Amino acid sequence: MIMTAPQDGKTTQTLMIVEDEVLVAMVLRDELQEAGYKVLDLTERQAEALDVARAEKPHLALVNIRLAGRDDGIELSEHLKALGIPVLLISGQVSRASSANTVAIGSMPKPYDAAEMVLAVAHLLARLNGDGSLPRPDQLEVFGEDSFDLAPAA
Amino acid sequence: MSAELHSRGDVALSLTLAIVTSSPGPLLLLDGQFSIIAASTSFCALFGANPAQLAGQKLYTFDDGEWDSPQLRSLMTATLSGEETLDTLDIDLKRPRGPVRHLIVQARRLAYLDLEQTRILLAVSDVTTARADAALKEAAARESKVLLGEVRHRVANSLQIIASVLLQNARRTSSDETRGHLKDAHDRVMSVAALERLLSTSGAGDVEVQTYFTRLCETISATMIGDVDQISLTVEGGQAIIDARVSVSLGLIVTELVINALKHAFPDGRRGKITVDYSFHGPNWILCVRDDGVGMPLTPPAGTGLGTSIVRALAGQLSASVEATRKQPGTQVSIKHTQIALVADEAEAASEPLASTRLRPARSAVDG
Q1: Can you say whether the dihedral through the CA atoms of A80, A86, A92, A94 is positive or negative?
Q2: Closest A-chain CA to B149
Q3: Chain B residues within 8 A of A112 when measuring between CB atoms
Q4: B199-203, B272-276, B319-323: which range is least confident on average?
Q5: CB of A70 within 8 A of CB of A95?
Q6: Partners of B334 in the β-ladder
Q7: Which residues of B touch A27 (CB under 8 A)?
Q8: Tell me: the pLDDT tens digits for A112-136?
Q9: Does B160 contact chain A (CB < 8 Å)?
């Protein structure tokens, strides 16, 4: 796929992936990188994810609910939210993801297609920048629509 | 003979006592001061009481005073005064010997000829076991729900890993042909995954066909390799609910036929349209996938296409026939299941477009 992330004249947008299934994380990283995003080092535990997040301040974190070492992605999301980093949950635990609608900005439930995840990321990043014009993949659940404070699409 | 030996009053009283005593449900006959006149054998058995000792005893002193509760007192007072609103009481009886018993107590003031002598009938149902059973059932239902959620989560996770491995392999291979095969395999896995997602949100074992096919087509659109921007993918047909097992097969058939049309019907950037149409009439149904492309050979050369053999195998599993017909322009493949021969076999389902998806809708948006 030849897709590039919107550059809007600024630096490349940075993402982080926190996922305990390394194969899933790798494919996601490759797909997002190919779409033009900078993807930080893959992490699978809360502590290392927070280290990376503090050091790099990504624009969006993609977080699985189940993490390595029985760490919990929702707990991690609370810490990330406190750091001002928005979270997209990427878990098959649909009901838990939906119940975390105050700590995350959206949920893309497994099994998702990597290409659709790229669309979901583009959609959310654009919305965070006040642009609601990008298509929202059917599977993407967006939490707290009001909190995005959308400006009219340019 | 007895009528000669006993007065009519004695006979009536003994009949009353006999009825109370033999009642299968635990029963007490009380006077206006709530003293026990008679107890049924079933009552005595339930509470381990001696019938001889019960007679004359006050209700509130029975069982070491365990029956003396404010709720029971107000029930009895209400019954005595003829109020009917409070005539059933749910009580947890804590007994000195033995476990707590959950009782449903009903009191009735008897209406009969002797207005001077108040009589109250107290019926007791022991629902301890029934309550425990209901609680167990509820716990079991909750547990199954949790387990089902866990299973669905694991299935979703496994499908994600399989899809990721296939996609990873597709990215790494240098052979276009191999990449094509791996992408097809990835799409087949995602076709099952789309269904799994629907099931996990619907909760039940049934699937709404149009919703499923629409999602399926969106996924296929998002993942297709190559320049297929000029092809639209439309889902048509009536609203139908089908069993999850049938929908797995139908979804895989749709995936194969759509992939096939995308690969062969529109060479050299030709513009066009692929339509997925499911209609039904009672138990009979037809699934059509048609394109307005260049037209394909109706009988592919022997040994070609995993896709073709998958479609035939799945159609066979659904007791359906596969028929390919040439259209002007394009090709239509119909999967037809006829369970009952109907006289006027016209599908009642309206064939109007329900959803239309531009292939790879995001490309222009993201690029732009």
Answers
A1: positive
A2: A93
A3: 160
A4: B199-203
A5: no
A6: B288, B323
A7: 164, 167-168, 171
A8: 888 889 999 999 999 999 888 898 9
A9: yes
Strand intervals (E) in B199-301: 206-208, 231-237, 241-243, 272-281, 284-291
CA–CA–CA angle B66, B72, B76 (5° rounding): 130
CB contact B145 to A (< 8 Å): no
Tell me the pLDDT tens digit for each residue of B316-359.
Answer: 888 999 999 988 889 999 999 988 776 554 444 444 444 444 44
Indicate if the pLDDT at residue B2 is higher than 80: no
User: From the list A28, A95, A111, which residue is nearest B156 (CB)?
Assistant: A111
Residue of A nearest to B200 (CA): A94
pLDDT tens-digit map of A49-103: 999 999 999 999 999 999 998 999 999 999 999 999 999 999 988 888 888 999 9
Question: A120 touching B, CB under 8 A?
Answer: no
Closest CA to A106 of A139, A149, A150, A69: A139
Q: What is the DSSP letter of B56?
A: T
Specify the 3-state DSSP secondary structure of B242.
Answer: strand
Contacts of A75 (CB under 8 A, 6+ apart): A46
Kindly state the greatest CA–CA separation across chain B: 115
Closest CA to B194 of B233, B126, B250: B250
Q: A113–B190: do the CB atoms touch at under 8 Å?
A: yes
- Residue predicted with more confidence, A145 or A46: A46
Q: Which residues contact B1 (CB under 8 A, 6 or more apart)?
A: none
* d(CA A55, nearest CA chain B) in Å: 28
pTM: 0.63
Nearest CB to B149 within list A2, A3, A95 = A95
Range with lowest mean pLDDT among A2-11, A40-49, B210-219, B302-311: A2-11
Q: Cα Rg for chain A, rounded, in angstroms?
A: 14
Do the chains contact at A138 and B218, CB–CB below 8 Å? yes
A35 contact residues in B (CB cutoff 8 A):
366
Q: Does B190 touch chain A (CB under 8 A)?
A: yes
Task: Kindly tell me the number of DSSP H helices and DSSP E strands found in chain A.
Answer: 5, 6
Question: How do the residues of chain B divide into helix, strand and coil, expressed in percent and rounded to 5?
Answer: 50, 25, 30
Cα–Cα distance list, B173 to A102, B97, B152, B168, B307 (Å): 42, 78, 32, 9, 21
Measured CA to CA, the distance from residue A50 to residue A85 in angstroms comes to 10
A109 touches chain B (CB under 8 A): yes
Alpha-carbon gap, residue A36 to A29, rounded angstroms: 11
Burial level of B350, CB count in 10 A (0-12/13-18/19+)?
exposed
DSSP type of residue B60 = G
Measured distance CA(B91)–CA(B102) in Å, rounded: 6
* A90: closest CA of chain B, how far (Å): 11
